[in-house]
Specification:
Number of domains: 2
Order of helices and strands: HHHHHHEEEEEEEEEHE
Radius of gyration: 23 Å
Number of strands: 10
Strand content: 15-25%
Distance between the termini: 31 Å
Helix content: 40-55%
Strand order of the largest sheet: 4-3-7-8
Length: 379
């Protein structure tokens, strides 16, 4: 988890900047070189996404090494470096804007929008990992990680503002009949980015309200697998003598579990289940994989002086899944990790990420989201 000072994408942009200085102009930063840099940044987000999937399906439970903090620190550093690369890309394109054709401007704007959305997904992953490990780090480490996550969110707003500037520079494309749909796509993308930012802010607010004791509220999660079908059970319990209302339980993978729960001395706990799900290894054939998730609960504490909200995080639950239902794959080796479906990013139009779509569809169909996790080949 040691941070490294050099980073491929940062080095690449540095070379372009030096070339600009030596040449006396930035014409060395051609459209092709900017697209190449954009490809490097996209590849970096794919790698970060793979790393995040490995982390979220690992327990990291070892009190002797504080792995939770070490990996949270490392993942935050990766998110920071990705934002730096994005800022460099924006600077490079903005500096050379006047040298670009209209088609090149549109193409780079689509690239910038795609990169910002991917960065938002990285921040969402960062928030999920932080939520899971929040009660396993010291108070000073909590504050440090919260401060750094807040800094990422603030700089994300700066990037959104830059994207908005690029749109203002091209607003006249709306008047071109052939580019009308492109402009509508940009507007839809911008709206989607703002919505993602709002969700991240709501998650950050939840972290600020999270307690690591059971004074007001507690949540436990368990799983039971029978004949390959897994059912998850959630138990939310009031603190002694505490009255709560509008309690909501949310699973990190399955989404909303239950809502509008009231707890008091007459009804001190509430139990609910979700499933059964037929867990599969979505990204490998004939393999064994690990599927881990946790849950959160938030509710209003009722007092004579007014209500306030508290949130808690459950224990993590992991299931080892043996998935040998498909024919033997042609490839000899299957490596750990997860394949990211590039098709969910379509031009300038907004679209949901794979995990979001799978979770939504699974909730509607009563099936498990196809999220694979650390896959290993059994021989």
């Amino acid at each position: 988890m040691k941070r490294k000072g050099d980073w491929t994408a940062t080095l690449f942009i540095g070379i372009l900047v030096v070339a600009c200085a030596l040449a006396g102009s930035c014409h060395a930063a051609t459209y092709e070189s900017m697209k190449s840099y954009e490809d490097l940044l996209r590849s970096q987000t794919v790698l970060i996404g793979s790393f995040e999937n490995l982390l979220k399906n690992s327990t990291l439970a070892d009190s002797g090494y504080n792995y939770q903090y070490q990996f949270l620190d490392s993942f935050d550093d990766l998110a920071d470096r990705q934002q730096q690369g994005l800022a460099s890309f924006e600077d490079l394109v903005s500096y050379n804007w006047s040298t670009l054709s209209d088609e090149e401007k549109i193409s780079l704007t689509e690239s910038f929008e795609d990169l910002i959305r991917r960065e938002a997904m990285v921040l969402s992953s960062n928030e999920d990992l932080l939520k899971r490990g929040y009660c396993n780090v010291s108070p000073s480490q909590k504050q440090e990680l919260l401060d750094r996550f807040e800094a990422r969110l603030k700089y994300e707003v700066v990037l959104y503002t830059k994207f908005e500037d690029w749109l203002h520079f091209q607003q006249t494309i709306e008047n071109d009949g052939e580019l009308k749909e492109t402009w509508i796509g940009f507007l839809g993308s911008y709206e989607d980015l703002i919505r993602r930012q709002a969700n991240l802010l709501a998650s950050f607010e939840m972290l600020l309200k999270t307690r690591c004791d059971t004074e007001y509220l507690s949540l436990t999660k368990s799983s039971d697998t029978d004949s390959g079908e897994t059912t998850y059970t959630y138990i939310v319990t009031q603190g002694t003598g505490i009255t709560l209302q509008n309690v909501t339980i949310t699973d990190s993978i399955l989404g909303l579990v239950a809502e509008n729960i009231d707890l008091d001395d007459a009804n001190p706990s509430y139990t609910t289940s979700k499933g059964p799900y037929s867990l599969e290894c979505a990204d490998c054939n004939n393999c064994t994989c690990n599927v881990c998730n946790f849950a959160t609960a938030c509710g209003e504490v009722v007092t004579a002086n007014g209500n306030f909200t508290v949130c808690v995080v459950s224990n993590q639950v992991c299931e080892i899944v043996d998935d040998f239902s498909d024919p033997e794959p042609e490839l000899e080796d299957i490596h750990p990790g997860i394949d990211i479906d590039e098709s969910v990013i379509q031009g300038g139009a907004a679209s949901q990420g794979t995990d979001e779509v799978d979770a939504d569809n699974a909730g509607k169909a009563g099936q498990k989201p196809r999220i694979c996790p650390t896959c290993s080949r059994n021989k």
